[in-house]
Amino acid sequence: MNRTNEAAFETVIEAHLLANGYVAVDRDGFDLVQAIFPETVLAFIRETQPHEWAKLEALHGEKTGQQILGDLCRWMDANGSLATLRHGFKCYGRTLHVAFFKAAHELNPELEARYAANRLGLTPTLFTLGF
User: Fold this and answer.
1) Quick check: is 129 in a domain?
2) Mean pLDDT, 10 residues at a time, over the chain (131 residues)?
3) Strands 94-96 and 121-122, bridge-based pairing
4) Residue 62 domain flag
5) Are strands 89-91 and 94-96 parallel, antiparallel or unpaired?
6) Of 103, 102, 104, 33, which is closest to residue 70 (Cα–Cα)?
7) Domain coverage including residue 25
8) pTM of this structure
9) How many domains is the chain partitioned into structurally?
10) β-strands 23-24, 121-122: how paired?
């Protein structure tokens, strides 16, 4: 009988995802304390919500990213990751989104562009447990 192992399974899944729109994300960018990829999150918000970013940057200057990440993590702790993905989070009265869903129709090019800007990333196992 052939024995399967987790490494072979991961390789097949990884190849499939990378062939279908996902991009490889370097695990070095992962923040262990916040449990997110901070630069990826900030780049997504900056690119997809420039008006909101500009308003927050006018208030916080160079600390804008730090403020957004702190509010995002607090919001996820209180509301969960799924709710945050679905509804966004508040940062100084502004609603910021970390994902955009496909619109019911293709009549609004702005919504289509935001949906297309979603980042689907794949990172190899972050932790190796040694017992």
Assistant:
1) no
2) 70 91 89 92 96 97 97 97 96 96 90 91 67 38
3) unpaired
4) yes
5) antiparallel
6) 33
7) 6-122
8) 0.83
9) 1
10) parallel
